[in-house]
Amino acid sequence: MSTLPGKKRAPFIVIEGLDRSGKTTQTSKLHSRLTENGIDATLVKFPDRTTAIGKMIDSYLRSTSELDDHAIHLLFSANRWELATTIEKLLLAGTAVVCDRYAFSGIAFSASKVDSTGAPLLPFEWCRDPDVGLPAPDLVLFFDITPEKARERGGYGEERYEKEEMQLRVRNFFRRIGEEMDGEAQSAGGTRWISIDAGREREEVEHDVWGLVEPLVTRGVDGPVGKLWTKDP
User: Fold this and answer.
1) What is the pLDDT of residues 134-147, one digit of tens each?
2) Enclosing H/E stretch for 94
3) Thymidylate kinase-like domain: from which residue to which, for each copy (predicted)?
4) Which run of H or of E encompasses 130?
5) Measured in Å, how far apart are the chain's first and last C-alpha atoms?
6) Using CA atoms, how far apart are residues 131 and 80, in angstroms rounded to an integer?
7) Residue 167: CA atoms inside 13 Å, Cβ hemisphere, count?
8) For the sheet containing 192-197, what is the strand order?
């Protein structure tokens, strides 16, 4: 398998996106392509529905159980913290981590919840706070797709959050997060956030993803693993 040059570490790559944007398919394709090219890589998916916390989340998403909105948000965050140390160790050991959804999804979906009057149920800042200090990705690829286009794809609407009005609000919060991450990256060399048109053919999207990821995994990353929304390494 590949060896990174010098004392560089492996990159942490996150693919985010709206439901039915094709991100899970593309995340799996990317992981396969990396390993086929002799690059050490691990695939992580959030929520990880195999853990005790993940099973509670899975039941909630399938609408077979009910939980307070604050509680389910904290469970999503706890599910990510379960793997935080593992992710950091992999990166420092030279294994790239490819992640299907991360903290950004947790924030966007929870902040998009509204009551019967349309008022937000959970403040944006409150939604972000539990994930402060998680390992920061080096690259986030946001798969952007209109809810109308997503609805044309099979399986849309099967889970709790796959409703068009909800997806529109989620899309707006993703844009807000992306703009904030871009600002931080430009000022302090943080996470790079790139939007990809996910409404195109799979092969086109796959080509763009590889073009962005391949240079990063080949040259490696300098410095320690960053922390989300904190200036401390």
Assistant:
1) 999 999 999 998 87
2) none
3) 15-208
4) none
5) 28
6) 8
7) 21
8) 41-45, 96-100, 12-17, 139-144, 192-197
